Amino acid sequence: MAVVKSNLLKQIADQYPNYLKKDLNKILEILLKEIMNSLKKGERVEFRDWGIFYTNIQKERISRNPKTGEKVKTPKKKTIHFKMSKKMFSKINSNE
Fold first, then answer.
1. Across all residues in the chain, what is the average pLDDT?
2. Percent of the chain predicted with pLDDT > 90
3. In this structure, are residues 53 and 45 in contact, taking their beta carbons and an 8 Å threshold?
4. 8 within 8 A of 14, measured Cβ to Cβ
5. How far is CA 75 from each of CA 9, 40, 63, 72, rounded to the nearest angstrom?
6. Continuous segment of H or E residues that includes residue 56
């Protein structure tokens, strides 16, 4: 099952029933926007015991359109990467 924002919001609302769902939604929106803004600036986003999001710059290159075989110039762009923490790695790979 994929993690969908609406399902994530529902789980948070179930765990914290005293908060209004619209307030929790606003908090989630702010959190995601701050992560996006930091990555856009080229900064790392680190969550302790969970992992790190960071960006790399992919150089511009000449690529090929697979449908037509035509050469296409691909501009440089940022790509997002995630590196999980050792703690998360061990939780995912444990037999429990």
1. 93
2. 94
3. yes
4. no
5. 36, 17, 10, 10
6. strand 51-58
